[in-house]
Amino acid sequence: MRLAEIFERVVGQDAPVHFRAYDGSTAGDPTSDTAVVVRTPVALNYLAQSPGALGLTRAYVSGHIDVEGDMYTALKRMADVTFSEGHRLSPLEMARIARSIGWVKFVNRVPPPPQEVLPTRLFNLGARHAKGRDAEVIHHHYDVSNAFYELVLGPSMTYTCAVFPTADATLEEAQEAKYELVARKLDLREGMRLLDVGCGWGGMVRHAARKGVKALGVTLSKEQAEWASKRIAQEGLSDLAEVRHMDYRDVPDGAYDRISSIGLTEHIGKKNLPAYFASLYAKLKPGGRLLNHCITRPRNDLPPMHRDGVINRYVFPDGELEGPAEIQREMNDAGFEIRHQENLREHYALTLRQWCANLDRNWDAAVREVGQGTARVWRLYMAGCVLGFERNVVQLHQILGVKLDGTDAHMPLRPNFQ
């Protein structure tokens, strides 16, 4: 059986993408502006070893499958047809396809590409979310290359959801709007002390310092800390702003008026959430506020995320997502009074679209910086995440909590965040 025939059996004869294979066969729409190209038989080895998303990812990252045209458009069109009721193959049909590919594909095993973090490697680093293991998985994702992140993230060097005041706002305007929204929710004022946990390249720290706030950011990424420290010095903010390469758990308690946690909770793990929020609660003065900003799942009763899936193997090892009520409950149980919550799901889809455009525009430079395989991981992962946020597979929640001063929350009668 030729590969184009298999493609048609899986997605139908009217697929809205073009398909080409090394055996010369073609399928789908020949006029489409996107194409899936199977370049070598090794792609079939990967699919035989790991049917589904993992096998496809391995084949794409290693260059045995290519996607021509816009990655998001290709993924969206393929998702529309492969998840439709009319194109779901039975186990018997899948077995027939496997036999037609040839059983040799099942025995000729090929190793995963080097960008994949194998479960055995994580196991050898100790228990999930132990300090040493956390440091290593953060290093895997965030110490790729500061120059690469500049190509993807743009001048703001902010790797979290932006807040778009209008749909046509620039990425930099939207990231600045996000930091200002966090500042308003926290009611940051001159003379206060802010702790920003998981601070990345120091965007929130510098934003706060420009308001006269004494701000400390902590990150497990050495490269982030070095980049942030240089930028703080360049902007003349060293008297107020500091970024340290350290674990948030090692920050002294009881010293801060405000805490921001922007994109860290995803790395904490469900069983560690009580200790995480208790630690942040202990670091605040009475009357202090915490703004927790993190990716969430749309429901709280979903089964646990697959710990051995593509995202965990290629992007965020040990990453975990919880529903918004789970996050809010753990904050509440740690002592915080919850004062505000909002979902910024659509804003993250817009943010990711901008990052995808930056990567495509700077593709050659990105490949020179980190190599073809790593650049492909990012192209696939970010385009897939756009779909995830658009289709409500994932969300983004900001939750504001207060450490009461006796019974006083020191909050206005009505929020003035906007």
Automatic annotation (TrEMBL):
Active site per the UniProt annotation? C385
Origin superkingdom: Bacteria
What InterPro entries has UniProt attached to this entry?
CFA/CMAS, CMAS, SAM-dependent_MTases_sf
Gene Ontology biological process terms in this record: lipid biosynthetic process; methylation
What GO molecular function terms would the record report?
cyclopropane-fatty-acyl-phospholipid synthase activity
**EC number(s) stated in the UniProt entry for this protein:** 2.1.1.79
Keyword annotations: Lipid metabolism, Methyltransferase, S-adenosyl-L-methionine, Transferase
Q: Which PANTHER family does the entry mention?
A: CYCLOPROPANE-FATTY-ACYL-PHOSPHOLIPID SYNTHASE
Give the family from UniProt.
Answer: Belongs to the CFA/CMAS family.
State the name under which the record lists this protein: Cyclopropane-fatty-acyl-phospholipid synthase
Read off the lineage from the record: Bacteria, Bacillati, Actinomycetota, Actinomycetes, Streptosporangiales
